[in-house]
Design brief:
By secondary structure, the chain is mainly α. The chain is about 40% helix and about 5% strand.
């Protein structure tokens, strides 16, 4: 701190009135909001959920709770069975589960069609019995 100067010194990376970079974090988080919904919805199907849980709950020392407690709908690992049960009772989890089970999945085919990269449309097909002009 410089002599005669009051207050604390704030570095360039923090939240100060000159630095507005911290405001961008909300926009970045919202951009990927529904990014993995197609994968999660596919994993929630009754015929696949047991296989997915068996694969995701293999012991792994790098994951929380050794990877033993996994929520398929939220793609989230919890540290204990109690924490997983608490997570299952949250409104955020229930809302996501309802969304994934009721709404139609936005898949790659639909995304490509929305971006104008759909199937080729060559117009009306001409039949042989139709004479041109």
């Amino acid at each position: 701190m410089a002599p005669g100067r009051g207050g604390r010194k704030v570095g360039n990376g923090g939240k100060n009135r000159k630095n507005k970079d911290h405001r961008q974090s909300g926009l970045k988080q919202r951009a990927n909001k529904g990014r993995w919904d197609d994968i999660c919805a596919r994993q929630l199907r009754p015929d696949l959920i047991n296989k997915v849980l068996a694969e995701k709950t293999k012991p792994d020392p790098d994951l929380p709770g050794l990877g033993q407690h996994y929520c398929v709908a939220c793609s989230k690992y919890c540290i204990s069975a109690n924490a997983l049960e608490e997570h299952m009772r949250t409104s955020k989890h229930r809302r996501r589960l309802k969304t994934l089970s009721t709404e139609k999945i936005y898949d790659h085919k639909e995304a490509n069609a929305g971006a104008g990269r759909g199937g080729v449309d060559n117009g009306l097909e001409l039949r042989e019995d139709m004479a041109l002009g």
